[in-house]
Every structure is written in C-alpha cells, then in structure tokens.
Queue: 3 jobs
Job 1
Amino acid sequence: MVAKKQDWTFRVDGVSKAFGQVLANDRITLQVRPGEVYGLLGPNGAGKTTLVKQVIGLLKPSSGSLTLGPYDLVEDPDAARQLCSYLPQGQMPIDSFKARQVISLTGKIRGGDEASVRQRADVLIESLDFGEWGDTLGTKLSGGIKRLVGFAMVTVWPGRVVILDEPTNDVDPRRRRLLWDEIRRIGDNGTAVLLVTHNVLEAEKSVDRLAIINDGQLIAEGTPSSLKAEDRGRMRLQVMMVPGVPTPATPPIVEHHTRIGNNVMATIRERDAGHAIAWARALMEAGQAEEYALSATTLEDVYIRMTGHTSENAEAEGT
C-alpha cells in the first residue's frame, strides 16, 4: 500500500483577533496550497499584519484556527516558527553582518547544509543583482539592498510557507521586477507563498489567487481575473489635471471616479468611450487638463471600488 502524501495546505479558519473593543481581524477564512502565490491585499491598518503575527505565533487569535498540514499553529507556535519563513515589514537587523554571510548563516540555522546554502545564496544574490554588495557590512547598505538581503535570508532555505510582508518596500524599480520574478519562482518550486501588500498592480502580475481585506474583514477572494469579472465591459479613463485645478464635475457616463494627486481616475463603460474622450479633450481645450489615457480596467480599479482606498503604486503615479 502506498502511503498518502502529506497535504501541506495552510489554512485560516474563522480567525478573529480583538484588542479590547477593536476587532483587528473578523472571522477571516482562507487557504494557501503548496506551490501557490496568494496575495493578501488591503490598505494600511486593514488587519493584514495582525493576521500574519498570529500565523507565526507572535499573537494568539481570540477565536478560530490556524493549521499547516498536520500542525495546529495556535497550540504549537514553535512549529509555526520552524515551518514558516517570515519577512517582516521592517528591515532585518543585519548591521553587524556582511550580506552574503548573513544569508548563509540564516540558511544553516534553518537546517540547510553548508554547500547547498552557499550555492542557493549565490543564486539569489545574482538573480536579485546585488552581487557588488555581497561582502559589504549591513551598516553600509542602502535601504533597498537591505530589503533584498532580508528577502534572501528568508528564502535561501524556505519553510513550508514563505510569508512576505510588503517585500518590495524601498527597492528600486528594476530590482523590484527581479524580486517579483523570484517570488513567482518560489511558488513554482512548490512552496506556499503568502504575500502581504497594498501594491496592487505589481501583485496582480505575480499571484495565483488573492484576498482583499478591509477593516479587518475579508471582503473578496479569487483569481485576479475573477475579481475583475464585474468590471468587464468597462474601461479606465485617466485625466491628468493641470496642477492646482480642482476636480471637475463628471458627466453621467462616469460610474465612479477618484482623485489621486493631479490625476482623475474614472470608470466608464466601453460603449461610452467616445463620449469620455470628448469630455477629456474639452477639459484640455479649457486649460484644465494636460492629457488623458484610456485603458482596460485593472485590479487597481476593483481595489479602489471595494475599499475606497488607492494603492501604493497609484499614489506614486499621482505625485
């Protein structure tokens, strides 16, 4: 008889966490399968990091369960720390170590043999393109390179679940793309990845499924395509306003709009594209707008509609 292979699915079932009268998490249920990159999206203060701290045993749920394979992570927080690799939002404490040294040290602490860890560390340093700082002390590294070193520490010998809390913080655009590629590669190699972020457009390209959390509650879950299903037949109109010009009154064809910096982001139906362009051109002729762009809707539009918040990348575009 062939032994049944262990199912290492990570499960969150009805988890709530209260701080006094405040519910930071409210009956959250989700699961992440081995080999899956699962995005946990939401604005700052939505409850994402609180959930993660419960997963790794830093907080205990007020109710509900957290399991990984055969392990109850609430009853056995030591198992959580052994089986989960965690990159926190803040920088890793690496000032006294050289980059390559601390990556290899972390891999050996997590149970990797020296030769394999050294080889994996070299691969990560090369793929994330920070080789010129491989033998530099942490005190002399920029915030972005420190972030990449922290990511390499977490993934050089990953656990059954890799938890990444805002992994691209401080990373420059080019290396950020390399980091997303590496995140995708980790999932493709069979590790479950729980990706916590509010950078919606970048996450959309890398995740298999995602959940949107707002005010402590899971308000939507699915693949990026399924979450955008309601927006099929709609388009995004972005009008770049002249600095200092107030948001103009929108015509009836605009179903939803928001102002991000000097940009007005509006959702319209495809059939109204011509009218939308005419409105944008009229604003330009009146000296109120500088240019416009019409494109397909994205997960960003879904996120704004559901949470009432913009994401990190939208805010950056609007500055």
Note: The chain has a mean pLDDT of 90.
Job 2
Amino acid sequence: MRPSTWSNLSRLLLCSVLLMAGEAMLPVRSQAEELVLVEPVHYVGFLPYYVAFKQGFYRDEGIDFKTVTMDGGSQLVPTVASGRAFALAASVDRNAQAKVAGKVIKAVVNIDARANIYIMARKGLVPANGDIAGLLKGKRIAVTAFGGTPNNMLRYLLNKWNLQPGKDVTLVEVSSTPLVLATMAAHQADVGVSAEPFITQGVAQGVWDEPIYAAKDLGPYTDTAISVSGDSISRNPKLVRGLVKAVIRGLIYTDSHRSEMLAFSKMEFPTASEADLKASLDRTFADQIFSSDGFIPPEAWNLGDAVVRLGGVLKEPVSYDDVVDMQFVESVQKELGHR
C-alpha cells in the first residue's frame, strides 16, 4: 500500500475516533414521558386541552400526550388511582367521591369554570311567570346517570326548588348525553338536561325550545378540571407542572384565537357537522364556560360541595384542600405573567 493511502486511512480513523468521542460527550436526550388522560366523552367542552395538544404545548414540556375516552365516566377515578392513567378530565365532584372512598385525587388546573348544564322543556312548555319549579312538578326529566355532573346538578336544583325525585318528579336516567335528546324525541320525557350541540339539535328538530334554565347562572363552578392522584403530585411534581402549564397555554390560546376555533374543531371532530360545532362554540363563549386562567377559586368548590351533598350523592362535607391543589397553577401564572 502506498504511503499516501496509509495517510488517508489514518486521517479517516482519527476523524472517526474524534466523532465518537464527541458524541459520547453530548447530553443524552430523554424521551418524552407518555401521559394518558382519560375523559368521559370527547366533545367541544374540553376544547382547550385539545388545543394544547395541537399547538405542541405538551411537547414543549416533554410530554407525549394521549387521550382515552371512557364512556359514562364511572371508571375515570379507578383508572387514575390505579396508575393506569396519569390524569382525568371531570368535575371536582369525582374527586370528592374518591376522597370519601379513601382515594386522593386532586384538581390541578381548571377547564370549564361554570356549569355547562342546561334544562330544556318539551316544545310549547313554558314556565308561567318564570316558575320553573311549577313547570317541572309532575314531569318526567331525562338526565344522564346518577353520580355524573348533570345528574348531581339536577338533584341539587330540585332540592332548591323543593321538588323530590320519585315523588314530585320522575327521573329518566340514561347512559349518555345524546340519549337525553332521543328520549325526549320519543316522548318518554317532558324535560331534558343537556348541553350543546344537543340543545341546538333539539331546537332544529322541534323537540324543545331554548333552555328554560342555565346552570352557569349559579356562578363559579368547576364543571371540568384536570385532576391527578395525590401520589403523582408528591412523586412527579415536574410532570404535573408541565401538564398544568400546557393546559393553561391552551386556555389562553383558545380565548385569544376564538376566530380559529371553528376550523380547529372541524379537524378535532371530523364527523360533527359545522352547524353543531358552531352552536357549541357560540354558546360556550357567550356563557363564559371556559376558564380564563386555570384557577379554581374556593367559592367554586363551595358550590360543588353543596351540589354533591344537597343532591344526595355524598353524606359528608369534603374540604377544598382535599380535592383541589392550585400550587402548580399559581407557579405557572407567575412564570407566564398571566394573572
């Protein structure tokens, strides 16, 4: 072999050694941590945390985000408590029920800061002089299953209106929100408890008129929050904070880019009609359902506690600190300068 060949080979070997040494000195990039969030339904009311995914806010925090829809919601808390999922999207009512059962699940960031729950009466039924209790007495009311937020809220309102289920009204409990409208359309109920897009669908089908009552008028109430287990808060606070930061950025983006949300929703819910999506967005923004900053104020749980207790779901009070942890929201708000 000629000297020049040896020289070229030596240089090549030297470059290879230096390259490998340089790679060994580079920091190892850790893989994004997979985060599974379970939800009771996939719908527009949860839009901000879908927006956070599409905008890459979870990836910015080193999170590989995945949602799993569990119809009905009865398995949400057990799935998170067992560690099979990291977080759940639901009302704080679920956390209170978990607490009484000996499990620690806490809301770490708000999504829907007012009750996204509406009562509609069969077309032509109108409360005389605004007397909703008088209209409801003796009627059949279609609502989702016991233990879920719409059912809890209905029972709370009936208590306030001095109406007793099984005596003054008949509850027709169904397994999912779409079945409320179907039950009304089949004349198996006189009143329904639901939300968009089913409100607009029912109006268009001539089943009911506009809502006779909107629970958002009750004031601050955590209809939907992202919650995690107490173990996750203590053992993996960095991941919890990253989740909270991504969701808050999603809330801010959703509010500040409202004109984009219809197009976004059409991508997220490709089988839904544009009319249904527009109705959902219009009512959600008009009624200020989405949280603006992710914070859950104590008065929101004051109402939540009253809902689960007066509604007969829980027999004992549960404190705000037992079901809510706002340390990450407060930290992120300072960082973002949003509050």
Note: The radius of gyration is 25 Å.
Job 3
Amino acid sequence: MPELPEVEAVCRKLRRDALGALIVRTRMLRKRDRRLEARTRGRRIVDVRRRAKNVLIHLDGGWAVRAHLRMTGNLYVVEDVRLRRETVRAYFELEGGAGLVFDDPRTLGVLELFREEELTAILDSLGPEPLDGEFTVERFRETAKASRRPAKIFLLDQTKVAGLGNIYAAEALHRARIHPGRAMNRIGEGRLARLHLAIVDVLENAVESACYAYTGPGSYNSEENFPVAVYGRDGQPCPVCDRRVRRIVQGGRSTYYCPGCQRY
C-alpha cells in the first residue's frame, strides 16, 4: 500500500503535471458518481496537497477531490487520455487532450468530491503531519505517555501520527532501537525523543527516494535508494548487529524487528 512518501511523490508529480489545468470532462468508469462528474467539469486544478495518505485535488469554486489510493491505486497524467490503461477506473480529461487518470487494478481506491469546508472537517480528526512543524517532540511525548498501546500499533494510528504506515513504522522503531511490542507509556523520554527523530529521518529519506523513482504500487524501481533494515527481511541478518530479523503479527499485520537491536 502506498504510504506517506509514495503519496507525497504522487502529489508532487501531479502539481508538476496538472496544476492550473482545466477539466473539460470527468468520467467515473467503475462506479458512476454523476455529482462528481458534473461538479468537476469546467473547473481548474488550483492545488494538489497531501494529508496523511490522502491526495487532495483542490479545484476553483471551493470544491476538492479526495483520493485514497489503498492497495494498488495511483494518480498520474497521460499525454492522451484516449490511450489510458484498461485498469483506469476514473479520469479527468484536461484541456488539450491530456488526462489525469485514477489507475486502480484491484478497484479498492476511493475517489470522492467535497466542498472545501466539508473536507476540512473530515480531516481534522487526523494527527499531526510528521514532516510539518506541528509534529514536535513535546507533542509526541505527551501523546505517547497517554497510551498503553504497543509501539508499532500506536504508530499506525492515524490520529496519533498522520501518514505513517507499516513499512516506515517498522524502520523508525529499528532506528530508535525500540521493540515494537513495548507499551508507549513505558518508553522513557529520551527514547521517545530518539523515536521522534527516527520517524522524521526515515520519512524524509523515503520521500526523497520516492520522489526520484516511485512509479506505482508494486513496481520496484532499481533507482529507489531507501534501504530497509528490517521490513520484509525475515530471517536475514540485521545490517547493524547481524542478528536474524524476526517477523511477528500485530493487529493482523506483519511486524519486522531485530531481537538484538530492539530488545523488549
């Protein structure tokens, strides 16, 4: 599933390729939404932003399209909308014949239209953006100390840290040398500060890599240069201490950690 870095890469590419474009026609091919089709037609794309794992396409007139890519979704611009792939589930035909397409092979993604004020109210429940100034170590400590949840489960809660997903939560915990099952309120202030720094560093590095080389979910590009230490490396040696990486299940999802670096 695309996480914060990949969604950020999608947004930056859309700002580069679609900002200011006029939508001349919108078609929903999977599930018809006539309101979205009608309300977006004739509007310009005035901004593209990310909030957590959401792509927000802001239009003139006070409307916005929210896209959640889920497992296999992707948004990108093609030069000729008539040449779109068969897995495209919706598209915005732009002036001149190009198209902003919503490509979603497994049809799990979400595409919705909101008034700007409606969208703000929906997204207010999300936690701070980890790459913004609002994500301070003091705020992170305060939230962590109020929770007895295991560290990995806590980090995946979008009301605590917006946009952090399975891969980068595991990598941040490894860098901070914190066991994923450790209760958050039992982690000392110094280690919480180290985890805060690890989250920011991991995401900044991953965003840089994704913006350079990300092309879509499930399509690894050899130019991507974010080195994972534990995620998906069950049984392989930890690059720090050479102990074998282990896999456990938390909340129905795989968690990877190093028993040498991340002692309980």
Note: Strands lie at 23-28, 45-51, 54-59, 63-68, 74-78, 88-94, 99-103, 110-115, 246-250, 253-257.
